[in-house]
Amino acid sequence: MTISRRAVLKTFAATAAGALVGAGAYGYLDERHQLQIARADLPVADLPPALAGLRIGFITDVHCSRWGSPEYVGLAARRLMAEQPDLIVLGGDYVTWGDRRFVQPSAEALAPLSARHGVFGILGNHDDDRYMPAALAARGVDVLKDARTRLTIKGEIIDLVGIRFWTRKAADIASLLKGTAGTVVLLAHDPRRLTEAAALNVPLVLSGHTHGGQVVLPLAGAIAAQKFPVVAGMARRNRTTMFVSRGIGTVYVPVRINCPPEVAVLTLQPSA
């Protein structure tokens, strides 16, 4: 029996299409709901010994929407609270495309978050500048919009500096760092701020925005996130450590493939 080249190509195309449909269905029905706890030790330059072991809970890219229910956001909050972090950071994108219908539900789902040293948040590119921060503030979240706040923990200073998504110039970030002391933690939704942070000797940066690529293909990797210096997890540049969370939500398509959602528990450690 002779099999034509055309038949082989048609069979290959049908198999590839079936695999794509199957992967998409899996990513929609299953993996985007496989919420994980990501634990990482982060080396921080010049970290005082008293702050070694400090645990930061980190939730980002919530994307409460028709595809990401408030109940799911609440599950992420409960999972993080079970870890009992010392302080909590929210990394932005609480809704999708600024949809005001989900502002209050998103904030309410995050309301149970609490930590002994506070809950702090920044805004992402999907968040408006008025309603979302007001909803979070009403529920005890200290929202940093190109602002900083100082914590004293075990007698040591930590300055949290939160920047807006559109704050990109090194000079603008440098102005927010004037007068900082102790350990500086930059909260920047976009991990491309690693360049400015490293130039300014910021010890630690926490970011989201990438969703870890959301769809990570074999061999090709996270195609949608290749423009970022860090797609997910920890990286170092000079004296700066960055951690990028995959976040818990989705955007554009409600699918995750080889990239499960996560809440992060980050333990600070002195840099070698």
**Distance N terminus to C terminus?**
67 Å
Taken in chain order, the helices and strands follow as: HEEHEHEHEEEHEHEEEE
Named CATH architecture:
4-Layer Sandwich
Treating each run of at least 4 consecutive H or I residues as one helix, how many helices?
6
CATH topology: Purple Acid Phosphatase, chain A, domain 2
Which outline best applies?
A: globular
Strand percent estimate: 15-25%
What would CATH call the homologous superfamily? Answer: Metallo-dependent phosphatases
Number of domains: 1
Total DSSP E strands: 12
Low-pLDDT ranges: 7-27
Cα-atom radius of gyration? 20 Å
User: Share of helix among residues?
Assistant: 10-25%
Spatial order of strands in the largest sheet: 1-12-2-3-4-5
Roughly what is the average pLDDT, rounded to an integer? 91
Main beta-sheet annotation: 6 strands, mixed
Query: Which class in CATH terms?
Result: Alpha Beta
| Secondary-structure-derived class | alpha/beta
